[in-house]
Give the backbone structure.
Amino acid sequence: MNITDKNAIQAKIFSVQTNNDFEQLSLDVFRLQCKENKVYGQYVQALGIKAEDISRVEDIPFLPVSFFKTHEVVCGKPNESDTVFTSSSTTSDSPSRHIVKDIELYRSSFRKCFSLFYGDIREYTVLALLPSYLERTGSSLVYMAEDMVKESNNTDSGFYLSNYDELVEKLKRLNKEGTKVLLLGVTYALLKLAEEYPMQLSNTIIMETGGMKGKRKEMPKKEMHELLKKAFGVKQIHSEYGMTELLSQAYSKGEGIFKCPPWMKIMVRDIYDPLKVTVVNSSGGINIIDLANINSCSFIATDDVGMVHSDGSFEISGRIDYSDIRGCNLMAEEL
């Protein structure tokens, strides 16, 4: 696979329209990454799989997301990169590191994806309530939010850390003016806003990014959404599903049902047999194909549990407990 072939594959990522387009490009990316991504290539080889024998997307092996904590998961040389995104971590947990060789791919991915689901970002005032993310460096979510704030080309757009009073004043004013607002917030911060400053926000899309970040006790998603809806007088709570290891996002416009852009797909695997992809409408581990990840790994087995519906939409129900399930993650210790 030469550089010309790679460029030809990359040029097709955001042009995917049909399932056939997606499957063919996925197979092309798989073969490319088997050759150019040392870690993924060794993982596939350790499974006893030959790239040339794979002819269906369902048979492509997915790399456990934990490899991003222990290995440099990248095509080619790691030092030839634009940036490195890192996840948040505790003292007992190493952060994931996503080496991004072409930041323009990430920018194109999240811009096209938002436009696909919500339209022109310039129609919104973007308010980002992301305290835990702003307090560290290397967040892919902050990078995306910064771009959204800038591209909105609106002087009212901006970030908020702990200045809730200022945020509340602006939200009330914008709502009174009938301005279209996107309030993007980490879950625990939105809950604090809801509990301490309830208000009616008829023109605001409230979008939670998930996670309590150790700030408060986890609670069922449905219960949390009901609390937010009641506090802000909105019919639905929107959600963004993304992670450090991806360059694409899925969005939910309510009820916890997410949809992917055409270049991203969710599959479900058997929790006890990580190489077995299960049928739709059954619960299991979430596998993600993100074709925008062409320079790292496009086939990732996450630690999330969920269900994929027949129309390709999906929902997340929790996290896998690895206390007695280790599966292919054992290979992370050997490669």
About this structure: Residues 136 and 262 are 32 Å apart (CA to CA). Residues 323-333 have pLDDT under 50 and may be disordered. The first strand starts at residue 63 and ends at 64.
